[in-house]
Specification:
6-stranded antiparallel beta sheet, elongated, alpha+beta, Alpha-Beta Plaits
């Protein structure tokens, strides 16, 4: 691993595997005009690429979940905005884009009593595949359950 990295690799450093653990930053922003633009601008100025993201508003605040090509640089850039940021480990699952794959994945996790707390998509590296980001109740257990998925 390179300088400034932790035990969980950034998404851009991962080899193509069906299931891998990646870092996600969650940013809480005021639900107001321009919130997402401020985040995007800060990341662009830091030369950080967004690999996957999801944004949801709930009352006066919204959350933006981000998988990035350089989590450490992104965190530094976003901290300058004065927003609340947390870092989580999530799964990035690449699977063939075929009917029934989501059901199979969900059944495997249910069989080992792991909850999917949230999910969103990413751009697949291969157009014949779907790429999902999963926030789950047990990242290590889910990775093991989906190991040969």
């Amino acid at each position: 691993m390179g300088k400034g990295s932790s035990s969980t690799p950034d998404a851009s450093r991962e080899k193509m595997r069906a299931v891998r653990k990646v870092k996600q930053l969650t940013v809480w922003v005021e639900s107001a005009h321009g919130g997402l633009a401020r985040i995007g601008k800060a990341l662009a100025e830091a030369k950080v690429n967004i690999v996957a993201f999801s944004a949801h508003g709930a009352g006066p605040d919204g959350t933006v979940r981000l998988v990035l090509n350089n989590t450490d640089r992104a965190r530094k850039a976003l901290e300058k905005l004065g927003v609340r940021i947390t870092e989580e480990e999530v799964l990035r699952v690449t699977m063939p884009d075929k009917p029934g794959r989501l059901a199979k994945m969900g059944a495997r996790l249910a069989a080992v009593k792991i909850n999917i707390e949230y999910a969103y998509t990413s751009l697949p590296r291969d157009p014949r595949h779907a790429d999902l980001v999963l926030g789950v109740s047990d990242v290590t257990g889910a990775a093991k359950a989906l190991r040969d998925f």
